[in-house]
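Crash report, auto-generated. Payload:
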Amino acid sequence: MKLLIVGGVAGGASAAARARRLREDAEIIVFERGPDVSFANCGLPYYVGGVIAEREKLLVTTAERLRIRFNLDVRTGSSVESIDRVAKTVRVRDLATGREYNESYDKLILSPGAAPVRPKLPGVELPGILTLRNLEDVDRIKRRVDEGIQRVVLVGGGFIGLELAENFVKRGVATTLIEHNKQLLPPFDPEMTTPIVQTLLAQGVDLQLGESVTGFTRAGNDLIVELKSGTRIHTQLVVLGIGVSPENKLALESGLETGVRGGIRVDAHQRTSDSDIFAAGDAVEIRDAISGNPFQVPLAGPANRQGRIAADNACGRDSRYRGTQGTAILGVFDQTAAMTGASEKALKKAGRPFRKIYVHPAQHAGYYPGAKPMALKVLFDPENGRILGAQAVGSDGVDKRIDVIAVAIQAGMTVFDMEEMELAYAPQYGSAKDPINMAGFVASGILRGDHPQIDLESVMHVAAEPRPYLIDVRTPQEFSAGAIPGAMNLPVDELRKRLHEIPRDRHLAVYCQVGQRGYLATRILIQNGFSVANIGGGYKTYKLFYPNE
Amino acid sequence: MKLLIVGGVAGGASAAARARRLREDAEIIVFERGPDVSFANCGLPYYVGGVIAEREKLLVTTAERLRIRFNLDVRTGSSVESIDRVAKTVRVRDLATGREYNESYDKLILSPGAAPVRPKLPGVELPGILTLRNLEDVDRIKRRVDEGIQRVVLVGGGFIGLELAENFVKRGVATTLIEHNKQLLPPFDPEMTTPIVQTLLAQGVDLQLGESVTGFTRAGNDLIVELKSGTRIHTQLVVLGIGVSPENKLALESGLETGVRGGIRVDAHQRTSDSDIFAAGDAVEIRDAISGNPFQVPLAGPANRQGRIAADNACGRDSRYRGTQGTAILGVFDQTAAMTGASEKALKKAGRPFRKIYVHPAQHAGYYPGAKPMALKVLFDPENGRILGAQAVGSDGVDKRIDVIAVAIQAGMTVFDMEEMELAYAPQYGSAKDPINMAGFVASGILRGDHPQIDLESVMHVAAEPRPYLIDVRTPQEFSAGAIPGAMNLPVDELRKRLHEIPRDRHLAVYCQVGQRGYLATRILIQNGFSVANIGGGYKTYKLFYPNE
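Recovered output after restart:
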């Protein structure tokens, strides 16, 4: 068996190692256009910031090591230019010498990755306007920082943009971040990004949301970034992080099926429309688990798994990729934001019915030092309670809760299961009622009808008259420090004695700081004959939606 | 409805709050023998060490707050002395005044907890021999430390003993820990406790495993602890942490069914043998999920959940407790040990077939600073791969992986599911191939027959002749720093060229440092016609079993 693999980073390297383990006798050739195989893509921003001090750390493995350990024929600096699917050969160009040659295959795995998008803007090809994909890119960026540049403009508020922002700030470079959407981190729901916005601002990042770049010009040694608003920003370096597009040239030109977003189309075996050609990684089209719509997910975990499965099937095994649920995480300064499954945005777009809850628990017992709150949002099926997605933002312990929910989604579990989950508790690690359990209680309470909840949007977007009568059940101190406009204050601890002050002819909405006292107030009021719902997640959720009010 | 609750800590307090939310009209009385309700049991050791600086932090809530917020009649200092199940009354003794009175009930919930065991040893009642259960206990212990004692003896190497050891060391008190078993932390398998033993020794704890106390005597202001070995230890304070026994006096005397280990027997509704009496928390008997045998699990999470479910059912709802899977965690110095589900010991005892794997991954990407290895052991069904239990020891990220596996066990997932789990990856938080995935790969490889593995015990406990021919596939440097006795060294990178050096008439066992190179070596050898198995978890696992060789 002769197996060719195009691309030697995450998907390609995984495929090559897996294929060798399965087939000691196979001839396996890996073509990598760049000089390095299997480098630490996700570590690049941290090398700019000096968090990762040694460049060698970024080399997960080397071509030499792959050759020796896995008996692979690794050809770096080698670009696969075309595929002849009838003759079953590829045309390879050695970039150093220019020599071209054909190489035949029995099976072919494509893992070419995705390339950073360079928008067609005036001046975008000026020197000093960089992207970040590989070690050569990071060398260029780091060299500029080491030379002592004072100012950088980052275009794009996605994962890479934010990771770079942190690392530029750590190096003392004044950082402007421009994002054309009104929110950072497009996969997240907007309110869940509020703490990240606040952190970036607190760290001195000049954050420009809802602003676009219209072009670049040169001014001496500086660059000028021109914005839609008319603002012109003088800077010394621009890094574009506005997304990636699948490297599909080979696939397109050889007539393999691709999707509307350009990804190479594969089946569950990672097989393309040609039964001898497989594909894995960022170049591949994914199906959204909720909507079934095609999309692209440039994530290392899925790329590795797809590489393994492509190799399995190329070697004659029947293994299947289970799909990508979009589990992702970002660390930026002291904040962590993570998500898994569907967002509210995605569910709405797909027209999929859902309910949602917010809780604001600490990552561990409040009585143990270092407890810090997180905001956790869970989306679930309104009929059967099946978990559809979750997002969390906070500091420690966010990754743990999202991983737990990621597995629960994979298992098809419900919010009722979340109530009962038996998680590890000691005061440094969690709570006897873990954030996961708390979210389960709140969500299950809605579905059981014990705990009528109203989403904040249904209160805020409603005109004065049909709007529910708002009761803030926190203490007067909390109330006077900030409350939802139009609310009356009636602390939960006085509620039973002051029921006569509450109108019986109005629908009520109560809220507290995080939802817990509001829940008790709701129970008291229901059992006293009022029509009432609790505003899920309380005032803290309100402040996620309306941070500046 | 009139509901009485005996005990106002974890299970009792949860039951009371839940009952009030369900039944605003119910009369609910909580009897607590001690002066405090709902204190932070699990935080007590950290108050001794000063990690938790303020005593008030230990009060999760107060009787006053429960009265006001939940409209509960909370009676502290009130001991329930007996139950008249026919008349449906309890006899209550006010401990301050000595007054006794009857209180009637419609439903009764027992949550009396468990009391520390005081072994019947000569001198065990001497002053200065303390236990740790509540705030009065911790005050006594902390007072002695604040007075400047120099030496303490802790009896019992369970969770509380180890947490206390850390906190005494932090206070500068020379600490001796005596455990009559040969291992610490009885719920764990012995090899998984090795890093904890090493940490305690490194921190200067005088650790005496396999040693028992035979009695205590007084010597001036000091105490003398007499050991079975004949050693006599002079000390200033003794804390007994040798386990707890369920407070079952009320249940026994009123004729409620109890189990062989003394726990109050309940059904899935937390209902005792009397249909109007429920029980929750440490006093209740649990069924082991694997063996079905009764046991006791004094854990706060299950106590809280049981309290809620007891209240549900006392209020006429049908909710069910799903059982306790024994998820537990310990932090001691910089180490974390955690487990969920069945241990190997428990599976063997129950005669349940299983396979096991060990992996030693870092908690996050190796290229990001701060990566530290953990040891992760997973037990699974040899037929269908269903996960039966897991244990991990290391530093950061141990809690996350055990929580993920705890949920996977609850969902009935398999090691094949672990391979595919899509967990959150950025280099600070995990790896593109997470420790969970790695464990899944190794375990699934065994079940698919790709990766024949042999447990270390099957190598070590076998006489020279039928013992497999041992090959260490690490580098000569690693080999010379320590290897399994009798192994030959043949680095994996030279294996393909040196196959002729390996006997073809022997069964082979290969190993590396953690199992990964051993896996590749196994694949190479199998495909070259050898009979071979990889020693799971490699040399690092060997060092867990044989730390001193």
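Post-recovery validation: Residues 300-314 of chain B form the longest helix (15 residues).
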